Amino acid sequence: MSGAGKGGGQGPGMPGMPPPPGKTRHTLVRRLVLPFQEFFQAESASGIILLICAAVALVWANSPWADSYFHLWETHVTVGGGPLVLDYSLHHWINDGLMAVFFFMVGLEIKREVMVGELASPKQAALPIAAAIGGMLVPALIFVAFNAGTPELRGWGVPMATDIAFALGVLAILGDRVPSGLKIFLAALAIVDDLGAVLVIALFYSAGIDWAMLMYGGITFIVLMGANRGGIRRPAVYALLGLALWFFFLKSGVHATIAGVLLAVTIPARTRINVPEFVASARAYLAQFEEDGLRPDPAHPLTLKQESALERLEEAAEEVQSPLLSIEHAIVPWVAYGIMPLFALANAGVALEPEVVQGVTSPVVLGIALGLLVGKPIGVGLFAWLAVRLGFAGLPAGVRNAHLVGVGFLAGIGFTMSLFIANLAFGGTTLELSKVGVLAASTVAGIVGFIVLRLRGNPGAVTRAAPEGR
Description:
Distance between the termini: 59 Å
Strand content: under 5%
Low-confidence stretches: 1-25, 459-470
Shape: globular
Structural class: mainly alpha
Order of helices and strands: HHHEEHHHHHHHHHHHHHHHH
Radius of gyration: 25 Å
Helix content: over 70%
Largest sheet: 2 strands, antiparallel
Number of helices: 19
Mean pLDDT: 82
Strand order of the largest sheet: 1-2
């Protein structure tokens, strides 16, 4: 490797090989920004699919084929055998199994944002953290005000959540009418919100604890941390250990999805070689490849020397990319276009029976709906304004207070996380009522947020876009 690196030092003298000034730094910035761009695009498109799946679930649950909808999710699926047998309904497999992968992705996002994103420095993190805290605290207090002293108080965590896919989807529709800094702020806010939801689920929505299984889970987590510290980077190792971690948490009484977040913490985030070293090595391997001549005819096989150069170049490319980024890049499409839509299809179906229709003004529905519709914009806007006013944070470029109000409404789109917590908190008719509150409030919050941001958008962007619109 060192010899190759030295050989690569001759690369700048070769035609077409030297990078323009600042190319290496630009490449590093692109590598850090690209995952966020891909994540934003995937989450935005996923919001449309989620909306379709939610609509299908609602129509299906109230159609002549409603029985098939509810019977489908109660179908039992058995995996394994002996002491390791798992026999759960399809609904349970989705909510406790597939959603663990969703929470794994959430954990990867949180870790990346803390290391290189908007949460990497106290000054950058102050605004989204303050907004997220307000956006969780005020809705929870509103729900408590409506349900204090009742068994339904257990659902105080339902209106705390934000669905990042729907929220970013609305911003994507607005395009350049909103500043790019607002999109980054909303993504960071939603990620902090997700972290809050994870803590709430772990601390307040876990069943009776099986301490032996929890201990085994803890030992598995320590082994995973040891693998990280030992320089193990193969995804298969973390996948197998992560599966064991999920099993122990599933049996422990602590909600199994928490295992996904803990697994994400252990995924290596650092590269094995730095960017300048990779560039030097790549130049050396490309020079070695060129030495045997370039054959335009694909019928001619590569020489042994060229194949060796390609193998080394591939190894170098793997070493310069962190496992965290490569794994996140690989699972985002599966989560955005598979797991989350399936969750929406399985959980958004509400049979509008007479008792459900009559209960739309119940404290549960009002607590959830007003928590999301009123509590979120007040909490996000007020706490963000206080953070700026007190000097703890500053507004991103181009972002005004009116934008914060619009983002506050978008944060009121609870959907995925709110439905998830509702399933943990309630059952029976109360669960159905909570779904009505979540779906109705999320719909209205998205519409209001869109209108506010469209009216308060970037005037320059609107003016420039007008001629094209004609």
